[in-house]
Amino acid sequence: MRGDFLFTSESVSEGHPDKVADQISDAIVDLFLAKDPEARIACETLTTTQLVVLAGEIRCKGVYENGAWAAGAEAEIEATVRNVVKRIGYEQDGFHWEKFEFINRLHGQSAHIAQGVDASGNKDEGAGDQGIMFGYASNETPDLMPATLDYSHKILERMAADRKSGAAPFLEPDAKSQVTLRYDNEVPVEATAIVVSTQHAPGYYFHDGEGDEAKYAELRDYVKGVIASVMPAAMLTANTVYHINPTGRFEIGGPDGDAGLTGRKIIVDTYGGASPHGGGAFSGKDPTKVDRSAAYITRYLARNVVAAGLARRCTIQIAYAIGVAEPLSLYVDLHGTGTVEPGALEALLPKLVSLTPRGIRTHLGLNKPIYGGAAAYGHFGRKAEGDFFPWERDDLVPALKAALG
């Protein structure tokens, strides 16, 4: 293993066009699960200039049954979508929560998918799709997340909070961040480069002699202050290079500046490139889809392994076949940092938690409207409002220590 290296992760704000799409898709998931915990949802969202389009397959009691919408359901869906965009803060000429055209092309779930996934007779509920999923944890931060991604998320979260509170009125919703850290003996010790590009009010730029230098200085100094408030002071040194709106003017942004689609920020959603990714997105999918639920359970298991002190880093892979309940494989990699053998964990973990789709949903309590809060700033290493997301609990630690500690 390499101990000394540079590593980089990026994040995007809730106003990034792809994240707008993710949040809309998960708002639809929450809306349907609140009405029917056994709802089936696969909702994709497209955002562009003054347009939002929904497409996908659904099944939900009281909303869409027998090929027809319930009275008022379509109006409620549209209101939900507009409220997401309003909460994010888009009231711009090119994208306004009240004025964009809305098209709903959701339709009923294929009966051929349902027959493989639904439980019937002696057949348990099967996985909603084939695929591989990964979970990861590292002791680099208290959140057991890669430090590069953790700081990238938190910079943008703070900026969004300041924008909404009025503390930074020159900010607009679209933004991106990127943090490069130098690692010494696998420990992050110094930020070598930090990039923040944020959409801004008219005039807050200065580039190649054009723009308002004083306004840009206000924005730049504000962003550097946010960075200093988020990151440990020892990491910000004379060697740290800042790139703040390096292309200059950034007034046109969000879906008006670039189309957004659900599921295009899967590395931002997970581990910032520090772990492999199976390729499946989370947002817009109900928890019978193992792209979502199995990624959550592998994070949960990896987190508990690290929290129990059995390794400094842990990656877990799991694989499924569509319509089949039991996973095809479980693989644990401790990256040479473990105090136990990975094979011992591979044998133990399925005894502690059922890894069938139903077992995962039951153990983590996933058939609830809990997903909207995870759709921006990462699905892992964060608290839901008032509590941890269920996949961020450390409640397996006592059992792991008793068996292997």
In a few lines, what is going on in this structure?
With 405 residues, the chain is α+β, with helices and mostly antiparallel strands. It has 11 helices and 17 strands.
Runs in which pLDDT lies below 50 for 5 or more consecutive residues are none
One letter per element, helices H and strands E, the order comes to EHEEEEHEHEHEEEEHEHEHHEEHHEEH
Helix share, percent: 25-40%
Biggest beta sheet attributes: 4 strands, mixed
Mean pLDDT: 94
Based on CA atoms alone, the radius of gyration comes out at 22 Å
β-sheet strand percentage: 15-25%
- Backbone shape: flat
- Extended strand count: 17
Alpha-beta content class = alpha+beta
Strand order of the largest sheet: 1-8-9-12
Break the fold down into its secondary structure elements and pairings:
Layout: E1 5-12, H1 17-35, E2 40-48, E3 51-59, E4 64-65, E5 68-69, H2 73-88, E6 101-108, H3 111-117, E7 131-138, H4 147-165, E8 171-184, E9 187-200, E10 206-207, E11 210-211, H5 213-230, E12 241-244, H6 254-257, E13 260-261, H7 266-269, H8 290-307, E14 313-320, E15 329-333, H9 342-352, H10 357-364, E16 383-384, E17 387-388, H11 397-404
Parallel strand pairs: 3-6, 9-12
Antiparallel strand pairs: 1-8, 2-3, 2-13, 4-5, 7-14, 8-9, 10-11, 14-15, 16-17
Helix pairs in contact: 1-2, 4-5, 8-10, 9-11
